[in-house]
Design a protein that fits this description.
By secondary structure, the chain is an alpha/beta fold. The protein has 4 helices and 4 strands; from the N terminus they run βαβααββα.
Length: about 140
């Protein structure tokens, strides 16, 4: 991250259908393309959680076209920061990477009312992450 390369972040949760998708969408939106964003799951679902899609649409962020992706060793290797959300034990560890585990409630099977507080907590964490990765000049 010391050269002119954009910092990159990988968000990982089990199904890549809720938390990691919301985090990736927020980071892509709020960093305005200044951070490379990836998301994946150790056991991806067939589709993104509709309540997560609805909750993010309320924030003006469209996740409806996103699809859950399988976690690959390559995605971890290519990322500067790896943030897990409940599946840290399945994520490969490489020296020189920054790893964080965000303890967040799982939105699976929840309605949008239950997803909103999770979404809001993710946004707060994303804003802090951006301030750490893109310090003001």
């Amino acid at each position: 991250m010391t050269d002119n390369k954009k910092p990159s972040v990988l968000f990982v949760c089990i199904h890549n259908a809720g938390r990691s998708q919301m985090a990736a969408a927020y980071l892509a939106h709020l960093s305005e393309g200044r951070i490379e964003v990836r998301s994946a799951g150790s056991a991806p679902a067939d589709s993104v959680n509709p309540a997560a899609v609805q909750a993010m649409a309320e924030e003006g962020i469209d996740m409806s076209a996103e699809t859950p992706k399988i976690l690959t060793t390559e995605a971890v290797k290519e990322s500067d920061v790896v943030i897990t959300m409940g599946c840290g034990d399945t994520c490969p560890i490489f020296p020189g990477k920054r790893y964080e585990d965000w303890k967040l409630d799982d939105p699976a099977g929840q309605g949008v009312e239950a997803v909103r507080p999770i979404r809001d907590e993710i946004r707060e964490r994303i804003e802090t992450l951006i301030s750490e990765l893109l310090p003001a000049n």
